[in-house]
Design brief:
The complex is a heterodimer.
Chain A lengths: L3 H25 L9 E7 L2 E5 L17 E5 L2 E8 L6 E3 L6 E4 L3 E5 L5 E4 L5 E2 L5 E2 L5 E3 L8 E6 L4 E6 L4 E6 L2 E3 L7 E4 L2 E3 L8 E3 L8 E4 L1 E3 L5 H33 L5
Antiparallel strand pairs in A: 1-4, 2-3, 5-20, 6-19, 7-8, 7-11, 7-15, 8-17, 9-10, 12-13, 13-14, 15-18, 16-17
Helix pairs in contact in A: 1-2
Chain B lengths: L1 H26 L9 E8 L5 E7 L6 E3 L6 E5 L1 E7 L2 E5 L5 E2 L5 E2 L7 E2 L2 E2 L4 H5 L4 E3 L4 E4 L2 E5 L2 E3 L6 E4 L3 E4 L11 E5 L1 E3 L5 H35 L4
Antiparallel strand pairs in B: 1-2, 3-18, 4-17, 5-6, 5-14, 6-16, 7-8, 9-10, 11-12, 12-13, 15-16
Helix pairs in contact in B: 1-3
Classes of the chains: A alpha+beta, B alpha+beta.
Amino acid sequence: MPTRALRTAASGMYAQQINIEVISNNIANVNTTGFKKNKAEFQDLMYQEVQIHPQTTPTPGIYESSTNKIQIGNGVQTASTQKIFLQGDIVATNNQLDVAIQGDGFFQVRKSDGTFAYTRDGSFKINANGNIVTSSGLILEPEFSIDENALGLSISRDGNVEVMETGGEKFVLGNIEMVRFINPGGLQPLGDNLYAETESSGAPILGTPGENGFGNIHQGYLESSNVDIVEEMISMITAQRAYEMNSKTVKTVEEMMQTANELKRG
Amino acid sequence: MIKGIFLAGRSLDSKFKNIEVIGNNLANVNSTGYKKAIPFNEIISGLGESKVRQATNYGQGSLVITGNPLDMSINGDAFFSVQTQNGIEFTRNGRFKMSQDGFLVNEQGLPVLGKNGPINFNGELLKKDQIFVVTKAGEVKIGDFVVDTLLITSLDSSNNFIRKDGTNFNAGEGYNLTGDGDYEILQGYLEESNVNPIEEMTAMIKIHNEYDSASKMVNFLDQSLEKAIEIGKVY
C-alpha cells in the first residue's frame, strides 16, 4: 500500500506541532526581561526518484523504461530553533541597578561552576558581599564590590561605574565589560535568561560599551522581551492552518484509497 | 475497452503520486528556502513520444527579518553554492553558521563557497573588534577586510536541477557560474518557502476529483464488459 503521502503529511503535522510549542513559549515569555524570541526552522527530507508509466504506451500493461522519472519528497523535519536577537523595547524603571543594552552585546556573568554565561537581562541586585549580581544571584564579571558606605551608583553609557559615598565623595569602581558574538543566533539558551557560547556562535569578543559595534548601556532602564504578541498570534493561526492542511492530505489520501477499494464491484 | 481500463488505472496511479507531490509541498510550507514542486504532467515531446515532465517553481519566497548577521537571503534569480562530497550543490536556504574551524557552513555543516573556495574566517580576524558584514553584491567582510565574495550561481536550465534534502539542489549539466545575474544579497534576512497553501489546496481538490473520475471510468468500463459477457452467455 503506498503510504508515502500519509507519512509526508504526518511529518508536516509533527513539524507544525513543534512550531506551536515554540510559539507558545514565546507568548509565555512576553514579559520576561531581555527575552529573545525563538523561531522553529524546517527543512525538507530526502527525495525519491519514482518511475511514472506513460498512459499512452502502445501495449497495455507493458511499461517502457524511459526517462519518465520524477522526484517525490518525503516530507519535512525540524532543523533547529533559532533565537532572534532583535532589540527589545527599552522601558524606564528608574531603578539605579537596572541597566539596559541598546544595541549589540551581552553582560558577562560567572556561573557557580566557574564558567561564563551571557545575558541581556540587566535587572541587577547587590548581594550580601556587595557584589553586583543577576536576579538569580550570579556575579557580574568583572566583579564589583560595593561597601556599606555607598549611597548610590551611577553607570555611564560606556559602562563606567561610579559610587557615591556617604561623605559625598565619588569614586570610580570600574568598568562594565560587554561581550559580542559574531553569530549570536548560535548561542545556546540555558534558561534564566542566560546563554552559553557554542562552536557556531564563535568565541566571545570582549569590548567596551559604545565602541566597535557594541551597544550603549542605559542606567534606570530595562530591555523588555522582543516578542510581538500580534506577530505570535498570526504565527499561531498560520501554524494551526498548516496543521489542518496536512490533515487534509491524510483525509484525501484516505478517501482515494477507499475509492481504490471500491474499484472492484461485487 | 481493456486498454481503456488500463489507461484509467494508470491515471489513478499518477494522480496518487501527484497527491504525494502536493502533500510534500504542504508539509514544507514553513521550510526556509523551499521551492514548490509543481505536480507533474504528461507532455508530448517533439518526436511524438509522451514524456513525464516535472517542474519546480523557483519564484521568490518572502523575506523575513531575523537580525542574525549570518542569515542571508537572495532577492532575485540565483543560488548560494555549498561544497558536498559529490560536488557543488545549490541552495536558497541562507541560514549559515560558523564551524569550529572557522568555516562558513550551512545548516547541514557543508562549507559555503566563495569565489576562492570555501569561505574561512581566519581566527585572528575574530579577535579584532570588527563587525561581520555581507554587502548586497555578496562580498563577505570583517570590518573593512574583504574575506571573499560569495559564489552565487544564476540558474540557466532550471529543469536539470535535482532536489536534495535540506532544500538543496544538485545541478545536472549546464549551469551557469556567473555573478552577473540580477540579484542582491540581504544580510539578516531568511527566505520563506514559496508554497502558497491556497494553490495547493485547490490542486488537491482538483486531483482528488480527477482521481474519482478515473475510478468512475474503471467502473463504467467494467460494467460494459459485464454486459458484453452477458450478451455472449449461452442459455
